[in-house]
Amino acid sequence: MTRITAPELSPSPPDSPPPARRSPAPATPPSRRRRPSPSPSLALTPSSASTSTTSSRPRPRPSPKRTYSPAQWVPVSSHPAFALRGALGGGGAAWDAAGSRLYVWDPSARGAHRVSVRIRDAEAERDGEEVAVEAAVPSEMLMPETDLGYEVTHISLNTDGSSLLLAGSHNINVLYVHERVSEDGDTIICRTAPVASQILPTNNNGIKVLQTSWHPFSSSHFGVLTSDAVFRLFDLSFDLEQPEQEFYLQPILPGRCQNASSICPVAFSYGSDHLWDRFSVFILFSDGSIFVLCPVVPFGCDYSKKHIEEIYEDVNTFGLKSSNPNVVTNSHLAIAWLEATFPELLRQSADSSTLMSRARAYAPVDDSLTLQGPLCRVCEENNELEGKSSSCEGKAVGFVYSSVGKDSVLVTAWGSGQLQIDALADEIQPQWSIGVPTRLNVDSHGRIKSVAMICDSNPQDSSALRSHRSSSMGSNAKSNTEAVWMGHSPPLLRLSIVDLALPKTSNGSSLSLFLDPLVPERFYCAHGGGLDMVTLHFLPFSYPEMASTPPSVHPVLTTGNSDTSSPFLSGFVAIADAYGHVQLVGITYTGECFVVEMKGWKEPTPLQLDICSKDIKDVESSTTGMISKELLAGPDPPILPSSTSLRSLTPDSIEGKSTLHHYIKVFHEHYVEYGHKVRAIIMVFCAYPLST
Known about the structure:
Elements: E1 3-5, E2 72-75, H1 80-83, E3 93-96, E4 101-106, E5 111-121, E6 131-137, E7 140-144, E8 154-157, E9 163-167, E10 172-184, E11 187-194, E12 209-214, E13 221-226, E14 230-235, E15 245-250, E16 265-270, E17 281-285, E18 290-293, E19 302-304, H2 305-319, H3 325-341, H4 344-347, E20 356-358, E21 367-369, E22 377-379, E23 396-404, E24 407-414, E25 418-424, E26 432-434, E27 439-442, E28 448-456, H5 461-467, H6 469-472, H7 477-484, E29 492-499, E30 512-515, E31 522-527, E32 530-535, E33 552-558, E34 569-576, E35 582-588, E36 593-598, E37 607-610, E38 615-618, H8 629-633, H9 654-686
Parallel strand pairs: 1-29, 7-11, 15-28, 22-29, 33-37
Antiparallel strand pairs: 2-6, 3-4, 4-5, 5-6, 5-7, 8-9, 9-10, 10-11, 12-13, 13-14, 14-15, 16-17, 17-18, 19-20, 21-26, 23-24, 24-25, 25-29, 27-28, 30-31, 31-32, 32-33, 34-35, 35-36, 37-38
Helix pairs in contact: 2-3
């Protein structure tokens, strides 16, 4: 375990707000259907109403046609949506990559600004080496058709950009972006529907909404975690009042009372593209314990057929051939679930043109999912289970999952200002509680409409982990495989504890975590004192030959605020642009907008934000009038290890993806960054006549 402290910032500053660029949408998996991106000249043309997914939806009433004047482009920080906001507070922001649009909730107007954004390359116009994030004026205001009756604290857009979740502390609504009820100039009234109005109270005195999040593999499914320790999965295209899947969480903590009344759930995160991780939901509790539900699959969701076949082959190859009866039993359960959920596995179709497999509605009648965990942590240095001395202080307040090469990384934020970074030491596998029946709701044809189950954790899980600890860490391939399929939760390998050195408060600090869309080793932490960037330099399974190096912490923005118990950001989005860079767009609770450009692996110049005076300044000046010796010397050629096994790797395999990611990172770090610097210097010097 490594404990590091973020460096203190020196005050200062000449002014120079960060600039900006226009970003096309990143590549979209075939399972996610998106609408076409509008051109900048049509940025204000309203999208046509999307076709309804069910016949139960009312058809939107036609609105009179509107005429538009050409859009005027201004810096996004100067857009009227931010400059004219006077009320404090906020409800978040969301980014539509396909349409290049920014959604920002306005608490005073009780609606969402939809702002068309472009990222202009200023280098082509000899304005310097920076870029400009610009927004179209005027923008549109999307209003719910009825008064919500609550304060919106978070908004979230689905993958195809058609629906916007409006979440409050006790209520949720869905705003259908393309279903217009009426229009009045730039104000559009959109159809809005409540979510689980019979479950969530209207008097704000009952169940609390802890987190809402769209499922990464479906544009119509979203998950809701509530304070009654229930995780619910809703299907937008079927029923918003009743959840499609309900999981009642019953954790049992070893060494404590046999219930979880002393702790409560805090946050959840979906798994990503890594074997069974794509079917997993990771849930964080207030004491820092992490539990897993696997498998959880939205009904009717599309998955890569190749990935499903890879998992199916893995179970048949390793699980069924074991001499351990427990391993064989668990493998049979996993195979039965795969064959029932993805029937194409049994048909063995010779048609190779089918790239996706659709998940069929299925759940075992006599068995329920096991709440795997709590996941025990082991130290990387000595492979021992951690004690209390190495745990963080306070309560867990934030959580995020990231898939980096072969590693599954879990980051937990604590109210004490610490970040706990762990990696899964083994693969996640499905687990069921035998003999605990599932409640099924079926239609007249016997098709499953919804499921509900009680998910108990295994009290023997942690003690069993101790006896299998050595095999779980990979010392023997055969024993390691059997340990995975024994039905025990995988341990967490402690990578580091990062101390952000925040001022101590009685209620603890409020921290939020955000992933970088281009660099998976990088994430951001927002708190009352500002915004920090954390970069991982050690990944135990992706780069085992590398030395254990602690993460680096770099301040992106500081507020100078000593009260870190409340966040200063009301909205934050990370935009991947066309130049391989990331634009960080943040909206403060005072309605101010700022933009920071992240250029590859280069650390940005920290910004200082004075909340009282609404002024953003550079912490240090980076202007220079000479070509540096480093630039004249050229890029340092990377030292690549010789390898004769690269030709045997396929780009779709885990090893192939990890290797490809590594070499792309090396190429970008050594050559792309150098090319950008050279071009910027040439454009600057070309702006001046040569002296004779």
